[in-house]
Model the fold of this input.
Amino acid sequence: MTPRDERRYPKLLLRVPQVPDDAWLSQPEAARQLGIVLIRIGVLIACGHLAPAADSAGRAGVTITSVQAENAWRDSATRRAKALRLLKDTIRFF
Done:
């Protein structure tokens, strides 16, 4: 089994942009910065709140700017905004 930091996005399923290494974060590091569990990163990517990206080696991750934007939103969003976002994401999922 491949370690999480070494995983890559499947090329046939997703077209993920390759970004410079200084604009990329691994998914575990993004989870640590946001203070959430790793599986939640996949949910945020699927819902469009984080931008998937590959580094120069092709490893799966997200862009630093999308993590910063998500962190800023989490810090400033009201409870109502968070509840509305959860509702929209749930509806979009189904």
